[in-house]
Specification:
The protein folds into 3 domains: 78 residues, Sandwich (Immunoglobulin-like), CATH 2.60.40; 65 residues, no CATH class; 210 residues, no CATH class. The longest helix is centred in the C-terminal third of the chain and has 5 residues. It has 384 residues and is mainly beta. It is built from 1 helix and 30 strands. Helices cover 1% and strands 50% of the residues. It is globular.
Length: 384
């Protein structure tokens, strides 16, 4: 008996029902054409398939339809897809979060479903579709903070939280290729909830001091390095660990992959050029990610995003059953394209590649991911 390939569609913390999910084999034949249920899930028993998820939106601001395709999905995959916040018209709910009375100045309470500010002890927070267990990141006017989790209710009491001063640490890069600029940020994440992000620091030549919250051992620390090599191109290198306030040092040379240029859309799909850098390492390219803004000559604009195993420098777009969903030579097509290397390969990153605003944030814990992309804009799950 085959295993299952599951798709989960969640915007913010709200499961999205009625989202079309299409399972196809390698020939393009339809295996299953279904919808997500009330829990945002669709499941089909199959050993392998190309899986496409169709998103449409109502309300304002207007947003073009989106089609996301996971090429080469396998039994056991739990493919995740979602926007950072609930889309469309929603009615927020007001809750009150009780914080410590020693909080100074303006207190900010950040959750996955809304943010509020005020004076201690009671902070009003406007939220939409919170989960049953809520992450809360609380910061006061002196940048003292704490992270807590609590059951969702109209009144949440985290007044026993301990506000702690920020920790000082350093961020640095080693083995930087010639003529390369490296800018880095650090993100502190629980699941897909980003509690805190540092300011960008240029670390090409010297290490930089950075201040981070004292929430070690609770969230993942994702260091994202933007690498720009003159005349070659741009890459993003991300690595993730359980947060400890230790120096973050990224070996750039050991984590760069070939630079990408000249993406071209044609009748057979996409092609591009890959140019190795000046430093040799043992990394392999595992996947290609392409985002296409398609404006048909006689139809409505749509956004099509594909992740697939890397095979040379070409990508044949899977053919969808509706002809209007397949870019044609007469369409106006703008392409964002990147190639990806990740700890554990394509199998390790495939399921979550469209669950974050930027792809390298999907890096497995205790692993690295590198995205090399053409132009100035990396491919993304949403239209930039």
């Amino acid at each position: 008996m085959p295993g299952n390939i599951q798709v989960s569609v969640v915007d913010g913390t709200t499961p999205q029902a009625g989202v079309r999910v299409l399972y196809q084999d390698d020939t393009g034949a339809t295996l299953e054409d279904t919808m997500t249920d009330a829990t945002g899930l669709a499941t089909f028993a199959v050993d392998a398939a190309n899986v496409s998820v169709y998103r449409t939106y109502t309300g304002t601001p207007t947003r073009a339809p989106e089609i996301y395709t996971f090429v080469g999905a396998k039994a056991g995959d739990a493919l995740a897809l979602g926007n950072a916040a609930v889309t469309g018209t929603t009615t927020p709910t007001a809750i009150v979060v009780k914080v410590p009375t020693n909080a100074q100045g303006t207190v900010t309470v950040k959750t996955p479903c809304g943010t509020g500010q005020g004076q201690q002890p009671n902070i009003a927070v406007s939220v939409t579709s919170c989960p049953s267990m809520v992450d809360l990141y609380v910061t006061d006017g002196n940048n003292n903070s704490f992270f807590a989790q609590a059951p969702y209710s109209a009144n949440i009491d985290v007044s026993d939280g301990v506000l702690a001063q920020q920790l000082s640490t350093t961020i640095a890069a080693s083995d930087v290729p010639a003529n390369t600029t490296v800018n880095a940020t650090e993100r502190f994440i629980d699941g897909t909830f980003e509690a805190f992000r540092t300011n960008s620091k240029t670390i090409s030549q010297t290490e930089q001091q950075t201040n981070a919250p004292a929430i070690e051992g609770i969230v993942n620390r994702v260091t994202v390095n933007s690498v720009n090599t003159q005349t070659m191109g741009q890459q993003m290198i991300g690595w993730s660990v359980m947060y400890e306030p230790s120096p973050a040092i990224t070996d750039i040379g050991m984590n760069v992959i070939p630079y990408v240029s000249a993406p071209t859309f044609g009748a057979t799909g996409l092609s591009w050029t890959e140019t190795p850098g000046t430093i040799t390492n043992s990394l392999t390219v595992d996947a290609v990610v392409a985002a296409l803004d398609v404006k048909p000559s006689g139809g409505a604009e749509y956004w099509r995003v594909v992740v697939a195993p890397h095979a040379a420098s070409t990508l044949a777009l899977p053919t969808l059953p509706d002809a209007t969903d397949n870019p044609a030579a007469t369409d106006q097509v703008t392409t964002q394209l990147g190639i990806l290397s990740a700890t554990g390969g394509y199998d390790a990153i495939r399921a979550n590649v469209f669950d974050y605003d930027d792809i390298v944030s999907a890096v497995p814990v205790d692993g690295f991911a590198t995205l090399s992309y053409a132009g100035n804009t990396p491919p993304s799950r949403v239209k930039n």
